[in-house]
């Protein structure tokens, strides 16, 4: 099985040093698709990161991440837009497939979930012309409802795709199995996204039972309860054939050597994905 | 403000001793609606529990709990039905408003979420004639998607109400703010449930930011991000005027004296609910 369909989100191996060091580790395992985080790009500088990407013929399945649009006041929301424009610039310079958006949750002190959702819609609408001009698709990543308050108030595919429909071209979704595997409407919404060309990324990991930490106990593929082969078949049936991007936030795996993590990822990718 | 609209789920004060002791603590605070758990009823025996309920004119806003229908084999599913019938008997003996169902998650070793959901539907269909004959409404409690794998594979109001519609009379939902507050379709589904007389219970607590434990870090009303007054207004607009049942699974509150917990519950009920 070729590893062309495998991408490594750098959160999975953030213990591996700077941008260049993580790229080298990926290449050593035959992996040529990546998805870095902004601070890792900033660490070496955008120009150097883009050179590394080009020199090694790497594909960016996404750039992580923009978003966090809600803020208590207009100035906070304006600053968020400005920061998102820089993220768009970075994604463009590295020719990323998309800019992944973790859209943000409730502003500090707020209980107004609807208001926060409106701030996301307004923020994306303002950012979108800039992203279109740069040729960078914006990928809403619906996050698991567990994160509705503090990370992303878009929590289902349907809700996110409805927003994409309102915003129009240049928008879509990043479908992470961890966030959506439980959704009773998963199949119909994935099919809908595919029909409309709105699947921009496919992230994988696994859901552990029990999950002991809400943030950092995601599982390695095969160690949990998600039927990953069936999930991928559904994604491909919907017309998306881009890489499966491995994004594992895990205290356990972060404590292991990067080479061990990547070797395990490759083995699991070949057997259970 | 009268406390008639306030019910205490015994999980909130499980440190308070046996069934009778917890009832006494509730009465001391003017609380006359309760929702006990089966093991607390079994602890004193059903006949004694029913006597305590009758003698004190208590209202049971629910009996906790039936459910857990999925199992790896037919014998396991049959045993679950039998156990649920006993739970129906208990609810009937104590004249509970409903039997609350935590329907169960994936059978051990399974990744077949659809199959588990079918087992729930089949189990409820089998239990329902018995419950109808006993005059005990079955309340599906859609649980937060965080619990889809190990506690309940029904995770939204829409999904649960669709099942109620298929099953027919004698079924409805227990709407717990903790599990559904994030749902983008909350308003329309609450209204739908109200139109069809399917709201059987309303549970309250709060969602803390951050939530540090997936199971036992629910918040006291007012300490989190849920707009409880707006939520209750929505429930009443849908036609449900039964008690607000306080169910707080929390290591923090379980470590406090029962009188302190109940005094806090009463104060918050009067101010933020």
Automatic annotation (TrEMBL), chains A, B:
Entry's transmembrane regions: none
UniProt domain Xylose isomerase-like TIM barrel: residue ranges: 24-257
Residue ranges the record marks as coiled coil: none
Protein name stated in the entry: Xylose isomerase-like TIM barrel domain-containing protein
Lineage of source species: Bacteria, Pseudomonadati, Pseudomonadota, Alphaproteobacteria, Hyphomicrobiales
UniProt xrefs under Pfam families: AP_endonuc_2 (PF01261)
């Amino acid at each position: 099985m070729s590893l062309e369909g495998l991408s490594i989100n750098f959160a999975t191996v953030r213990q591996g040093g700077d941008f260049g060091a993580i790229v080298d580790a990926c290449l050593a395992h035959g992996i040529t698709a990546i998805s870095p985080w902004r601070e890792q790009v900033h660490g070496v500088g955008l120009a150097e990161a883009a050179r590394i990407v080009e020199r090694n013929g790497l594909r960016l399945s996404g750039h992580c991440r923009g978003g966090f649009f809600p803020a208590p006041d207009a100035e906070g929301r304006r600053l968020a837009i400005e920061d998102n424009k820089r993220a768009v610039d970075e994604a463009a310079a590295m020719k990323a497939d998309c800019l992944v958006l973790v859209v943000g949750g409730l502003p500090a002190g707020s209980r107004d979930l609807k208001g926060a959702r409106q701030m996301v819609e307004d923020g994306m609408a303002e950012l979108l012309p800039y992203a279109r001009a740069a040729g960078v698709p914006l990928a809403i990543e619906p996050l698991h409802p567990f994160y509705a308050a503090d990370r992303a108030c878009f929590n289902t595919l349907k809700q996110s795709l409805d927003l994409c429909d309102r915003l129009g071209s240049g928008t879509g979704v990043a479908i992470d199995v961890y966030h959506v595997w439980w959704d009773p409407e998963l199949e119909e919404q994935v099919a809908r996204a595919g029909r409309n060309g709105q699947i921009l990324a496919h992230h994988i990991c696994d859901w552990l039972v029990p999950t002991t930490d809400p943030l950092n106990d995601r599982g390695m593929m095969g160690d949990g309860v998600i039927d990953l082969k069936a999930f991928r078949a559904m994604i491909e049936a919907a017309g998306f054939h881009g890489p499966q991007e491995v994004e594992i936030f895990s205290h356990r795996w972060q404590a292991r050597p990067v080479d061990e993590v990547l070797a395990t990822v490759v083995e699991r990718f070949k057997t259970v994905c």
